[in-house]
Amino acid sequence: MTMDAYIADLPKAELHLHIEGSLEPELMFELARRNRVAIPFDTVEAVRAAYDFSNLQDFLDIYYAGAEVLRTEQDFQDLALAYFRRAAADRVRHAEIFFDPQTHTDRGIPFQVVIEGLTSGMAAARTELDVSSQLILCFLRHLDEDAAQATLSAAEPWLDRIAGVGLDSSEVGHPPSKFQRVFDRAGAMGLKRVAHAGEEGPPAYVWEALDLLKIDRMDHGNRSMEDEALIQRLAASGMTLTVCPLSNLKLCVVDDLAKHPVPEMLRRGLHVTLNSDDPAYFGGYVNDNYRALAAAVGLTREQVTQLARNSFEGAFLSPGEKIARL
Ligand code: ES4
Ligand code: ZN
């Protein structure tokens, strides 16, 4: 069996996926037409050609513009189900998906529309595709603490549908400490806590995510590798890192996939997982990430198996649920 076939056949969990980042240009055009929203592109090819980024902010500007076509419950349901179909084809058995409510509520789309649409798509994925899922509400870190607090309050009627909170968007200049109080409040509500850290931001931001936000899982974490004490802390605590190789390449977090830190992370005993982040923008779903990284750095089958096993170990599921998803 080839490595690519081996990867395709491995059951996996996806733990770092922004649902708005799974909006393929074809669906973007369909929703633009359905909702009579103007988009600044004439063709699907022109949209794809615009996906050429030199850093995180370049991408975020286009990503927030793309989300403009999402208006109705049906739109959010269609978006989610399209992602789950692709994920199921990659043998994803469980997905913990991020959504950015502020991107929608700030343009007048009610929180209820977003969550009802997404959870309808998740229910359909469970029955039609046998893919289970959970939702993680992300706060946009370029906005202020009060806006994050208001978003958490808006989520309160829906807490039974939300597994945790996360922190995403522009990292540098927006350290985790800015959100310590809202993360404390989310923890007191019984929510899991995750945060993007060390994607572009320094190791100090990773320390803050651990010590101030008390995260249960870390998104990216690449720049942790610059700090020996931090590596040891992550290894000793068994912290799961949700790493996204093709995202890192597209956003110039790494300049060459062959130099990606995953092999060193594994050697140092870190609990690494592979994920697609924003697959419609970064050129691939989860199996594309496994295949591209395996080819670029020469992963062994044992390492690939470890990465998939880590994805179930790091999931917010009970031991019994994990076994049932394999
Ligand atoms: C994101 Cl790759 C990445 N980093 C930070 N925030 C994000 N939102 C969507 N994708
Ligand atoms: Zn991300």
Describe the 3D structure.
- It is an enzyme of class 3 (hydrolase).
- GO terms for molecular function: hydrolase activity.
- The record marks 220 as: Important for catalytic activity.
- Substrate binds at residue 278.
- The chain is an alpha/beta fold.
- Helix content is 50%, strand content 14%.
- It contains 17 helices and 8 strands.
- Helix 1 packs antiparallel against helix 15 and helix 5 (73-89) runs parallel beside helix 7.
- The radius of gyration is 18 Å and the shape is globular.
- It starts with a helix and ends with a helix.
- The mean pLDDT is 98.
- Bound molecules: 6-chloro-9H-purine and zinc ion.
Question: Notable features of this structure?
Answer:
alpha/beta; TIM Barrel; 17 helices; 8 strands; 50% helix; 14% strand; globular; binds 6-chloro-9H-purine; binds zinc ion; hydrolase
Radius of gyration: 18 Å
- Individual helix count: 17
Approximately what portion of the residues adopt beta-strand conformation?
5-15%
Whole-number mean pLDDT = 98
Estimated helix fraction: 40-55%
Protein name: Adenine deaminase
Keywords: Hydrolase, Metal-binding, Nucleotide metabolism, Zinc
Domain Adenosine deaminase: 11-326
Function: Catalyzes the hydrolytic deamination of adenine to hypoxanthine. Plays an important role in the purine salvage pathway and in nitrogen catabolism.
